[in-house]
TrEMBL record:
It comes from the Bacteria. InterPro entries: Flavoprotein-like_sf, FMN-dep_NADH:Q_OxRdtase_AzoR1, FMN_Rdtase-like_dom. PANTHER family: FMN-DEPENDENT NADH-AZOREDUCTASE 1, FMN-DEPENDENT NADH:QUINONE OXIDOREDUCTASE. GO terms for molecular function: oxidoreductase activity. Residues 52-155 form the NADPH-dependent FMN reductase-like domain. Pfam families: FMN_red. This is NADPH-dependent FMN reductase. Signal peptide: none annotated.
Amino acid sequence: MDRKHFLKSALLTTGGLLMGGAAIYRYLNSKETTDDPLPLAIDKIHHGNMKKVLVIMSAGTKLGNTDRLTDAYIKGLVERGHSVTKVYLGSMRIEGCRGCGVCQRFAHQCAIKDGMQDIYPLFAECDTVVMASPLYFWTITSRLKAFIERLYAISTDDKYPPKDSVLLMTAGDDNEVTFEQPKRYFRLLNQALGWNEMGVYCAGGCTGCEKLARQINREHLENAYKMGLEL
């Protein structure tokens, strides 16, 4: 048995204890070489024949609750036949907007040369933007906010390319007002940018970094998967 076949069998047998569903799918179906020009922070998960989906995962921890929720959603997207690219903002250096206005005077070229330069072309070609974030101080992460701010560079007269949008979130709290602020901001963002809101899923009651192990209810993962199938 060759190494590739052995690893495939092992992954399927163990049921993905060490890898998420999206990671398993990506490995079993990968036809790409290892000479990928994209940085490790950008993961081209699947090439389908339907929508092009850009997933912005803004948690600082890979394989944590937000990443697992995101991968469950991605599993549904892949089975639906969408193209999926996942960006780990926590693995990139991305500054917030400086308000310098250079982008509006020089062909929409942002003056800040950081990880956003790799994201801009991915954003330009996608149909749907999925933003995934843990709840930090009652709202989205600063990383995700910085990504949103830097989209100003591609605007013309405060007009933005039309996109469908999705918000995925996790939090330790689980009450009626836990996600009130980020959901309000997300809806305002869609109105301001002229985007089409396609869904919001908020997973409360997760165990965070205060405990020995991060935990998210399996029901949340199943719901996110079904939501991905519906896009």
